[in-house]
Write a structure and sequence with these properties.
By secondary structure, the protein is an alpha+beta fold. The protein is built from four helices and ten strands; from the N terminus they run H-E-H-E-E-E-E-H-E-E-E-E-H-E.
């Protein structure tokens, strides 16, 4: 009887530990996404995102055109709604699914970030050579790179561009596929 009680107690402790590790991983991903905008994205930082809002493709095009700058996205994805967030000069386009509401804090959605960054391609090349990084060529002479321990965020840069693009997806393989597919580009 003592063995059975010990076995059940050990199983319960393992389950609690696995749950705690899972919650910790989600928290780490959220923090990394927020830090990426300021730390990797040119160090300009963000004093906090402006209020997010749901937009149509047309409204997103108007936003990009009215600001006279490049805003990257992954196109109009079927079954997903567009959420636009902006802080300082950083812009995020998130693809909401299901019943998700604007501002949903879960790291459960494909997100494309556009960050002003001089010499972004040179920086991405430099970082792609660092220990723990991997990279692949991207269309139009671009380069995609990611940290193998945190592969859900893939960073892209292109020749003659002064923006850094981040493609985040909760599925790391899907993030890389988006980044190197040619589907991620400036909204026109």
């Amino acid at each position: 009887m003592t063995n059975a009680a010990t076995s059940d107690g050990g199983s319960s402790r393992r389950q609690r530990l696995l749950i705690a590790v899972g919650i910790g991983a989600v928290v780490v991903v959220v923090v990394l996404i927020l830090l990426a905008a300021g730390t990797f994205g040119g160090g300009e930082g963000s004093s906090g995102r402006a209020a997010s809002r749901e937009v149509s493709v047309s409204e997103l095009r108007d936003f990009a055109g009215s600001n006279g700058r490049t805003v990257y996205w992954a196109g109009d994805l079927p079954g997903r709604r567009l959420e636009l967030s902006e802080a300082e000069r950083n812009v995020w386009v998130r693809y909401l699914t299901g019943d998700a509401v604007v501002g949903d804090g879960r790291p459960a959605f494909t997100t494309v970030g556009t960050y002003p960054f001089n010499s972004s391609l040179r920086e991405v090349r430099r970082r792609s050579k660092a220990k723990g990084m991997d990279s692949r060529p991207a269309p139009d002479g671009g380069l995609a790179t990611w940290n193998v321990k945190r592969p859900n965020s893939v960073y892209l840069a292109f020749p003659d561009s002064n923006v850094l693009v981040e493609v985040y997806d909760p599925d790391a393989l899907r993030a890389r596929q988006f980044a190197i597919s040619g589907d991620v580009g400036p909204i026109r």
